[in-house]
Amino acid sequence: MIIADEPTKVYSEYPDSGMPKQDKVIAVLNENETSDVLQIKHSKDFQYYRVRLRDGREGYIQFGDKFRVISKNK
Amino acid sequence: MELNYTYDFAIKEPLISTAITSDDPSERLESLGFAPIGWDESYRIIVQNNPVNFVDPKGLLSEVIVLQPVGWGSSSFGHIATNINGTAYSYGPDGMSTMQTSDYLNRNSFRDGVGAELNLTPDQEARLQACMAGNQGDYGKVTNNCTSPIQRCLKDLGIDLGWNMLPVSLGNSLMDSGLVTKYNFYPATTPATGSSAPWAK
């Protein structure tokens, strides 16, 4: 599980390389909002966490944004 | 000399940070597979007779950064980025991307990296930057990958490193070239988690 320390963008997908595109933002985690981590993925450049949102949608947040991993998922 | 990755990062406890903490640069260099020839008092690696000759009077910086392999995809063989005066150039399947080097390194602090500063004149650095910012053609995993632009651009400057397909082999060629004045270490602050390919070691 992760907790957002600052508003954190959730992307529908991440690119093979370079930074994620802003038109792929599907949600923003608010400060202190938590989300389950489903998987960790790597592009050529960066690391992403596949997360499940409260409404059931899934997306990706990028390592380096302001969030912390606070516990392992069950 | 040979650069090998021997990390076991893929099987580390994923929630515990185990950054490299050694203050000994030769130890850190060796941990990344490099074999330093020697060091002066400011930890500038001694690769030729007089490290003073490598001082860049303009304070410009050209640095090739070799990043640790991770995951199963295109970065499972590692990655190369080039830092020119604070701008990171990174070539991949979606083309050349640029961003502030500090941000790029921060977003790569899930894996270890080592930067090799190059002994270039200000004119060479300007030409290198222009070349890296130019058209790099279509990406190809073998024929035109992350290692290609910097090799092409150095070759345009008259610096021929041969052809290195993998980041680690390019790192080794740079080490052997006598072009490197200093190594900078970028240890992972939060080591990579998730699974990685067996060859990503």
Blueprint (SSEs and pairs):
The complex is a heterodimer of chains A (74) and B (201).
Chain A (H helix, E strand, L loop, with lengths): L1 E3 L3 E4 L13 E5 L4 E9 L4 E6 L5 E5 L4 E3 L5
Antiparallel strand pairs in A: 1-4, 1-7, 2-3, 4-5, 5-6
Chain B lengths: L24 H7 L30 E6 L11 E6 L2 E6 L2 E6 H6 L6 E6 L3 H12 L14 H9 L10 H11 L2 E7 L15
Antiparallel strand pairs in B: 1-2, 1-5, 2-3, 3-4, 5-6
Structural description of this entry:
Chain A has 74 residues and is mostly beta strands. Chain A has a single domain, classed as SH3 type barrels. Chain A is built from no helices and seven strands. Chain A has strands spanning 2-4, 8-11, 25-29, 34-42, 47-52, 58-62, 67-69. Chain B is α+β, with helices and mostly antiparallel strands and 201 residues long. Chain B has one domain (9-186): endopeptidase fold (from Nostoc punctiforme), CATH 3.90.1720. Chain B is built from five helices and six strands, in the order αββββαβαααβ. Chain B has helices spanning 25-31, 101-106, 122-133, 148-156, 167-177, and strands spanning 62-67, 79-84, 87-92, 95-100, 113-118, 180-186. Chain B has a six-stranded antiparallel beta sheet. The longest helix of chain B is centred in the middle third of the chain and has 12 residues, at 122-133. The radius of gyration of chain B is 16 Å and the shape is globular. The chains are: A mainly beta (74), B alpha+beta (201). At the A-B interface, β4 of A face β3, β4 and α2 of B.
Poorly predicted runs of chain B: 5-23, 31-57
Instruction: Using the CA coordinates, give the radius of gyration of chain B.
Output: 16 Å
Helical amount of chain B: 10-25%
Shape of chain B: globular
> What's the story with the biggest beta sheet of chain A?
5 strands, antiparallel
